[in-house]
UniProtKB/TrEMBL annotation:
InterPro entries: G_AIG1, GIMA/IAN/Toc, P-loop_NTPase. It comes from the Eukaryota. SUPFAM superfamilies: P-loop containing nucleoside triphosphate hydrolases. Residues 6-221 form the AIG1-type G domain. This is GTPase IMAP family member GIMD1. The keyword Metal-binding does not apply. PROSITE patterns: G_AIG1. Belongs to the TRAFAC class TrmE-Era-EngA-EngB-Septin-like GTPase superfamily. AIG1/Toc34/Toc159-like paraseptin GTPase family. IAN subfamily. Keywords: GTP-binding, Nucleotide-binding. One of its GO terms (molecular function) is GTP binding. Coiled coil: none annotated.
């Protein structure tokens, strides 16, 4: 994970169709690695790994600046318009083992839309999927990305006001992952300064978890 002057964090984005998973991945990488556009069906059908260039000015350790590299695994949505739950789960689990099998996963980023209410049935299905994918310690390795934050802002909601008015389902979910959440404006996050803020928050979550990683091995059982 860390050498003398560089640190790499491994992330996976998970979520429903059209929540902005791939766009969020692109924002974190500062690139356009992942296909992302509006569509009446699920756009992503297989997993793909994106890698950032060396990023400076984000992290310091023991008084020295480290270069940061970010690796993001983009995944098919669940529910998916063309794949079953088991197909999505097997695809993601296999890709996690392939790409992060030795180094481990630092954070799974559950992508939700800030401009749409989170209902209890949707939350239950999503949490069950993540539990089956990541195992019993999923809460320690999961953070929530609330995309389309610009639309919530346009509606007059600050982050504090948004969370105060949020459904009990969302509040409960955020509480279960120890309030690890980030509001993401996909348009602004391509700006260097905005991206740096998001990356620092993610690194803080990793630090709070004592730089632990989740090791996932593919099983065909």
């Amino acid at each position: 994970m860390v050498d003398s002057n560089e640190m790499t964090i491994n992330l996976v984005v998970l979520g429903r169709t059209q929540t902005g998973k791939s766009a969020a991945g692109n924002s974190l990488l500062g690139s356009s690695d992942f296909e992302s556009h509006c569509s009446p069906s699920s756009v992503t059908t297989c997993c793909s790994l994106g890698r950032s260039c060396r990023i400076s000015g984000i992290i310091r350790r023991n008084g020295c600046e480290l270069a940061l590299r970010v690796r993001v695994l983009d995944t098919p949505s669940y529910p998916h318009s063309g794949l079953s739950k088991e197909e999505v789960k097997d695809t993601v689990r296999s890709a996690l083992a392939h790409h992060f099998g030795e180094e481990g996963l630092h954070l799974a980023l559950l992508v939700l839309r800030a401009d749409l209410p989170l209902c209890s049935d949707e939350s239950d299905h999503t949490i069950q999927f993540i539990q089956e994918l990541l195992g019993p310690t999923w809460k320690d390795f999961t953070a929530v990305l609330l995309t389309h934050a610009d639309k919530a802002e346009e509606a007059g909601f600050s982050e504090e006001a948004y969370l105060h008015s949020a459904s009990s389902t969302l509040v409960s979910l955020l509480s279960s992952v120890q309030h690890k959440y980030i509001f993401l404006d996909n348009q602004k996050s391509i700006i260097k300064e905005e991206r740096a803020i998001v990356l620092r928050k993610l690194l803080n979550f990793v630090r709070q978890n004592n730089y632990q990683v989740l090791l996932l091995k593919h099983s065909k059982e």
